[in-house]
Every structure is written in structure tokens, then in C-alpha cells.
Task: inverse folding
């Protein structure tokens, strides 16, 4: 059971009573009649063959309050797309699978590339962006949740708690960020959030002084959570990064576009675990090493837009401040783990801190070397301004794929048309 403490400047919605899922879902069903609800699932084809996604699909079947599920499918050839249609065909809700490598969506992507409007990097950010575009084009959901497809501890209550704040017609929230304790298999996980993001934000506050943006970012209990929900109008103007800075970028955009009282975070799970990235200490182009560099760059870019001037000396100072704060956090987490009967390897924790400290400098150097870098994918409102019928093109491309490759005589396909 969570506490009721409100930290920072963002409303925290706790799990105070372990409310029965059935009662919450009944409310969501009633809300959906006034405010239709949807879900976005960014997926790799390989996840269809994994442990987590099949269980997630089984868990979602009874979620009758969902009007539409939009699945973004990456790294799939034609035969794999056909398999994906069968796999997701179990869902009773209306759903569409975006075949991102398919010729129709590739042709649309090329049209956007020719106008310098397409995502520049493959990955989750690009996948999510196209799913957001289809959600706008479909116009079947007013409030939408998004979560990953590799959650091995998935429970349907996670979705219910995640979407509830933006589904309730008497709440005024435009955006909700999920949070949870990253504890599984007797260990405390979530190294990048624990050992990079939080101590880096504290170091930035120490070096730069009081800034509302830093207080805002430090208010989120798990800023790197891949689970969030939003009202449909958020999709028009949000600009998201295509790299590992996605979650930080989304939070920054919500800060730019909305007042703090329109944003919240919700406790959505007691136990949470998903696939883990390698530290990749010897490869800054992969694993947690690349993730940490991208996250740092995302923060530096946002602070630059707030008037902060960086140079090599300021990054050296920031690295030193971060390092001391992060090492103190290692002791804090170690003591917390021992008190709860969990394990935490101090040696590996400090190795991660050393890598992250080095990557703060690498991210700073990259930021200074490429000050005009444009990591954000353009907002859909900008794309629509340049290509007024782009959403129609996107919807038709997805529908044509569905009609051509869907199972003949599939009753679900007919019901979902």
C-alpha cells in the first residue's frame, strides 16, 4: 500500500485501498459512453513470441471499456505481419495493427521524409508517433493509454489505474504518468532512473539554482516509466524524441504545453518487471549506455530552451556534483534493500554510476558539438499544416493493409471495419 504524501508540484494519485478491479472497470465502462477510451501498444514482432505479450493480450480481452486498440508493429516482414494480424485477432475490441515496414506506410514515410517531416531514427519514438497519428485519424478515442509490450508482471488493473485519471469526466487531467516500485525477483531494479535521472536532477538544481522545470521533473516518482495516458487533444501539438529520450521528452512537452494542475501521476502496480537492458559499458551506441546519453541530451536541450548556457566547464562541474550525489544514493538504496530483505550489489551499482558520470560528459560534448541537432519528431499539427490530408492517407494505408492481409471471412475484421 502506498502512502498519501504529495511530493513536488505534480498531483500524485496513490493506491490507498486496493480497490477491487471490477468496481473500477465498471466505472470506466460508464465513463467510456461519454468519453471513448483507447490503448496504444508499441510492439516489436519478436515480442509476439516472448513471454509477456501473449499474457498481456489475454489480460486485455475483458477490458470492454476500450473502444479501440492501436498496435504499432516494428521489424516485421509480410509473413510476420500476417502472423501479427492472427495474433492480435484474439482481441474482441476494435483494433488495428500498423505495419511500419509495409510498403504503404513506407511510402507515406518517404513522402514525409521528402518534406523533412518524418522521424529520423528507427525505434519506439517513431512507432509511438505513427500510432498517435492513427489515433487522431481514427477519431474513435477521446482518452488514450499507452504502455509497453514487454511487461512480464502485467495485470489488467495496471491499465485501469493508468487510464482512470484522464477518463473520469469530472477530472481535468490532460496527462497521467504511471509509476511503481521497480522491485522483482528479490532485487531493486530501475538503475537508470535511480542512479542517473534523480541524482542528475538534484545535481542540476545544485548547480543552476531553483528552476520550476527541475522541480517539475523531480516531482515524478518514476520519470522513465513507459506507461502514460492522455486526452486526445494532447496528440496534436506534442513533439516527441525518436531516441531513448522519449519519456523525458514527453514530460518536457507536457510541461511546455499545460499547466501543472492538468498533469498527474498514478500508482499503477505493486510489482513491475520487464526485459532488462545491458549496461553496455564498452558500447555507447547500445544498452543503458546509449539510453543514459540520450536522456542527458534531452535534459540539456530542454534546459537550453529555458535560457541555460552550457560549456565544457559547466558539464565538468555537473559531472562532479552528480557523482557525489549518486554515490550517496547507492548507500541509500542499499540500506533500503537490506531493510526489505532484498539484494543490491554495491559494486555493480557504483560501476553504473561511474558509467553514467562519464556519459554526462559525452552527452555534454555531443550537445556542444551539434547545437542545431533536431531530435524531436515534428508535431502532428505541423505535419497536417504541410499535408492537409496526411491523416486520411495514414488511415487509408492502415485500412488497406488490414483488408489485403487480414484473414478472409474473419468476423473480427468485419466488426472492426
Result:
Amino acid at each position: 500500500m502506498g502512502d498519501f504524501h504529495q511530493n513536488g508540484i505534480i498531483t500524485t494519485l496513490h493506491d490507498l485501498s486496493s480497490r477491487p478491479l471490477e468496481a473500477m472497470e465498471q466505472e470506466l465502462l460508464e465513463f467510456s459512453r461519454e468519453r471513448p477510451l483507447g490503448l496504444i501498444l508499441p510492439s516489436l514482432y519478436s515480442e509476439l513470441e516472448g513471454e509477456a505479450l501473449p499474457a498481456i493480450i489475454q489480460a486485455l480481452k475483458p477490458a470492454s471499456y476500450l473502444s479501440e486498440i492501436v498496435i504499432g508493429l516494428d521489424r516485421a516482414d509480410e509473413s510476420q505481419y500476417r502472423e501479427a494480424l492472427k495474433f492480435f485477432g484474439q482481441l474482441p475490441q476494435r483494433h488495428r495493427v500498423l505495419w511500419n515496414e509495409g510498403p504503404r506506410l513506407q511510402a507515406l514515410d518517404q513522402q514525409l521524409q521528402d518534406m523533412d517531416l518524418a522521424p529520423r531514427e528507427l525505434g519506439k519514438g517513431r512507432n509511438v508517433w505513427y500510432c498517435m497519428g492513427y489515433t487522431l485519424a481514427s477519431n474513435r478515442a477521446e482518452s488514450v493509454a499507452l504502455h509497453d509490450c514487454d511487461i512480464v508482471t502485467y495485470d489488467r488493473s495496471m491499465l485501469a489505474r493508468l487510464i482512470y485519471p484522464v477518463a473520469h469526466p469530472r477530472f481535468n487531467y490532460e496527462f497521467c504518468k504511471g509509476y511503481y516500485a521497480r522491485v522483482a525477483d528479490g532485487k531493486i531494479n530501475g538503475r537508470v532512473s535511480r542512479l542517473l535521472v534523480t541524482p542528475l536532477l538534484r545535481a542540476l538544481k545544485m548547480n543552476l539554482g531553483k528552476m520550476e522545470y527541475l522541480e517539475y521533473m523531480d516531482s515524478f516518482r518514476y520519470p522513465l516509466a513507459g506507461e502514460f495516458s492522455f486526452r486526445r487533444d494532447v496528440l496534436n501539438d506534442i513533439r516527441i524524441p525518436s531516441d531513448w529520450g522519449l519519456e523525458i521528452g514527453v514530460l518536457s512537452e507536457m510541461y511546455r504545453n499545460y499547466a501543472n494542475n492538468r498533469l498527474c501521476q498514478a500508482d499503477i502496480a505493486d510489482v513491475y518487471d520487464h526485459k532488462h537492458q545491458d549496461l553496455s559499458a564498452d558500447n555507447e551506441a547500445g544498452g543503458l549506455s546509449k539510453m543514459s546519453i540520450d536522456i542527458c541530451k534531452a535534459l540539456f536541450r530542454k534546459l537550453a530552451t529555458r535560457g541555460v548556457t552550457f560549456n565544457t566547464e559547466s558539464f565538468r562541474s555537473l559531472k562532479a556534483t552528480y557523482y557525489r550525489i549518486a554515490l550517496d544514493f547507492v548507500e541509500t538504496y542499499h540500506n533500503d534493500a537490506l531493510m526489505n530483505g532484498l539484494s543490491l550489489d554495491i559494486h555493480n551499482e557504483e560501476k553504473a554510476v561511474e558509467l553514467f558520470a562519464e556519459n554526462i560528459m559525452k552527452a555534454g560534448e555531443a550537445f556542444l558539438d551539434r547545437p542545431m541537432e533536431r531530435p524531436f519528431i515534428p508535431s502532428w499539427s505541423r505535419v497536417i499544416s504541410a499535408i492537409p490530408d496526411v491523416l486520411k492517407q495514414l488511415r487509408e494505408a492502415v485500412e488497406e493493409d488490414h483488408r489485403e492481409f487480414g484473414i478472409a471471412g474473419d468476423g473480427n475484421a468485419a466488426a472492426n471495419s
Notes: Confidence is low (pLDDT under 50) at residues 408-415.
